[in-house]
Amino acid sequence: MIWIGLAIVILTFYLIYKNYEARLVLALSGILMAGIGWLAAGSNVTIGTAVDAFVKQLVNGGLVPTIVTVMGFGAVMTYTHCSDHLVNALVRPLTHVPAIVIPGAAIITWLLNIVLPSAAGVAAAVGVLLIPSLIALRVNPVMAAAAVFLGTWGSAISPGLMFNPQVADIAFKAGEISSPDAMIVIFSEALPAACGAVVAAITLAILSHFIKEGVGTADFRPEDAQVDLKNFHINPIMAIIPIVPLFLLVIASKEVGWLPTKTFSVPVCMLIGTALGLIVAILHKQDPGEVSKQFCKGAGDGFNNVVILIAAASLFAAGMKSIGLTGSLIDAMKGSQSVAMASAVLGPFIMAIVCGSGNAAALAFNEAITPHAADFGMTIVQLGAVAQLSAGIGRTISPIAGGLIVLCGIAHVNPMEVVKRTALPCVLALIVVTAGMYFF
Question: What stretch or stretches form a coiled coil here (predicted)?
Fold first, then answer.
């Protein structure tokens, strides 16, 4: 039974790698394993039980409101162009200090990805401004794309990323934390992640120097350098609005405590930001009804692309439990804490490189293994955070990641050439993040 389950898991991730619909593949694999486990081994996890695991995630009160409101808020910021003003406000200073443009581009993208948690979305928003600016400074176009791509894992510490609410919910149900607050997870991983981002950015800057692809090294390509940074009028208020919800979440967290945590939850803060976006739309004579439609569309996309994926991963994890695979993996990890630690890092990291997204692997790991973190001498928050951070970093070495395809289209370069430059910085970032989470 264990070997059958392992074969199904391998086939599942192979199909995801071949770009079959991840939600469908995870759900069908989960039902298949649950059915086999029930019929052949008399498991308590039946097909009905596995489907119940799927449904519970669709109505998860700690998870669903967080994800849909974040995605809705992001759609409103795009529609009102507040995100454009924030991007321009951060990008413009780089053009005045050429020496820091490469690490600066990576760090700015990383920070913006916290506010705008879609990797492909932030790649498009930042890349269309930064890549032409870097090319105008005679940075090699491949290095320009690499600098922006390197920052597209900043969403790892965003309250809108699916994993942070998921890990918080698991930890809350296990009694490890007092509330299913994603900010508890984020605060535990923020410093290691920030250190990893800085190490990666500096490494890329050093690499650009040694391979002579930094500022002033490339031929000027005027056709690619048409960017209107100087003439874009930045509205400071519009630039600030996208970061208001994040600021409120930080000051309302238990670690800071300036505002009541229970009152200023993620959905509340996102709705406050959305209300500010509505005011901006009215002042700029945009249709308030369209703002509402954009919020609903973003929320719907969040439910469709994120919540249902989490639900499918829960069904998949229930199937693994039914066929006995989860128990075997836990028993193997109990024998060695180092095995559990390595699995959380390398599994999602490798799958993200191969698939262009580590979501499926990290979600499945968190559903099946992370709840048993105490058996390995770790906390749920610690183990779950490492799994999702590894997935985010791994995606930044994948030649088929959606954000990379967007950037390569802007820079007119080959994806494989870009990931050759992000590989070393990402590996070093993974080492720093892992050490920070496990040992400090």
Answer: none
